[in-house]
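dumping this here before i forget
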Amino acid sequence: MTDGVSMYSDFTGLAQLREEVGERSPEATREAARQFEALFVQMMLQSMRDANAVFAEERDRTYEEMFDRQIAVELTRNQGIGVADMMMRQLRLDGQDVPSLRDAPTPQQLNTFPGRNPALRALRPAPARADWQPAGRDEFVRDLLPFAEQAAARLGVDAKVLIAQAALETGWGQRVIRDGSGISSNNLFGIKATGGWQGDRLNIPTLEYEGGIARRRQEYFRAYTDLSAGFADYVDLISGSQRYVPAVERAADADAYLDALQDAGYATDPDYASKIKAILHGPDLGEFVAEVKNSL
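structure:
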């Protein structure tokens, strides 16, 4: 592979990379996406600079271009601004065959204002989220049970524990986090968009406990395309974090699992575990689960 930093500012280099990715290598495709993102940022900077120029005055652009290139490299060096990730999602690099980038935009196509570039407009956003809105508690349980059983099998916990936790977090599906358009986030477990989270996120007001006192705060929460993705991320969070090892070790005991989650700081509410237990051991959940299983 050609050195990524030197290629960021070079249209000829991008054309060369398009030839290198002919073998459908995921690494080459990722590098191409990163460099496309850097070029995209550089063009935006140049467009903004030209738009702010006074009476289109003549000026030496050499140092301006060098500065814009360096800024583009810095902005896209690590996580970037999301364009590269959008391209990778568009190419569906999720374990499937890597499509060829030989049909990627040419340098001539790129060298236009981004807002009017059809090649850039073709970079569609991630798939729209499924808008899940259960009508009542029975529908809540019926919709979640298949996903809960799959997730519970991976964690070694009773599926009803996960449904009870989701019931607490979402008010039995009536208070699911939603975006400005009212579309569900499919976030059933109140998972915040912290760390290296690269997916969709929603900023909403939430109640957090500090020193036992409830306070209103604005926080970012993860958003998923559907319920399955939400459950999968919950399992990855619990099973992949050292802080939740005690919870996984006690998964066979529902109450112990919930106590361990709280001890590990899953939620700031000091009564978090006891509230879930009240739902878990209450009459409604058991009856709804029994009804769903009897209907199968």
